[in-house]
Amino acid sequence: MIFLYLFITFFQIGLFGFGGGYGMLSLIQSEVVHRHHWMTTGEFTDIVAISQMTPGPIGINSATYCGYTAVHNAGYSGFMAVLGSLTATFALILPSLILMIAICKLFMKYMKTQTVHDIFAGLRPAVVGLLGAATLLLMTPDNFGTPSLTPWQFWISYFLFAATAVGTWKFKINPIRMIVYCAFAGLLLLY
Predict the structure, then answer these.
(1) d(CA 65, CA 124)
(2) Long-range CB contact pairs, 77-85, < 8 A, 24+
(3) Using CA atoms, how far apart are residues 128 and 139, in angstroms rounded to an integer?
(4) How far apart are the C-alpha atoms of 16 and 98, rounded to whole Å?
(5) What angle do CA 56, 59, 61 make, to 5 degrees?
(6) Model pTM?
(7) Rounded to whole angstroms, what are the CA distances from 167 to 23, 110, 143, 171, 187?
(8) Angle in degrees, 0-180, between the axes of helices 78-110 and 2-16, rounded to the nearest 10
């Protein structure tokens, strides 16, 4: 049954996940952590970190890892967990594949019309909102610590968060470099 639930869940995420992989993160977390309880928030954070560091789109990488972890946590063997990752990945990309095939000819025909421009103008704020929601959903005590229980981890985490935001936005530091810098800083400061 878990394979059917994985397929339905990730098909819905693929169908409504506008804004690419980062826009999907809040939907994926909501489904796999809070609704189905297939994994903990800490496990999901690890998935996001690994998905960012591995080649490919973060949404697809996250779905692959979430499918594997969900089936593995349900007590199945390694082969079945790989089948879970394939199920989640296929379900996530299937809506896009179907929609792109169906819409491609129409879009090419009508892409210069005002209606199409208005639709995309309306989608832009929604995408920004989804990205902001993904950011806020990952700002949890599991990821940042708390000022009362783990003050050193809390303040280092917020410093690294702020340094990354300023470094990539103001100083235009490559995000891959920022990931490496923060990993090195986290190793030095937290362990």
Answers:
(1) 28
(2) 83/3, 84/2, 84/3, 84/6
(3) 17
(4) 13
(5) 50
(6) 0.62
(7) 22, 40, 20, 5, 19
(8) 30
Supply φ then ψ for residue 20, to 5 degrees: 80, -165
CA dihedral over 78, 16, 179, 153, signed as positive or negative: negative
Whether the CB-CB separation of 64 and 89 falls below 8 Å is answered with: yes
Positions in the chain short of pLDDT 70: none
Listed in sequence order, the residues at least 6 apart from 87 whose beta carbon sits closer than 8 Å to its beta carbon are 3, 6, 7, 10, 67
Three-state DSSP at 171 gives coil
Amino acid letter, residue 63: A
Closest CA to 163 of 132, 141, 145, 186: 186
Dist CA 145 CA 154 (whole Å)? 5
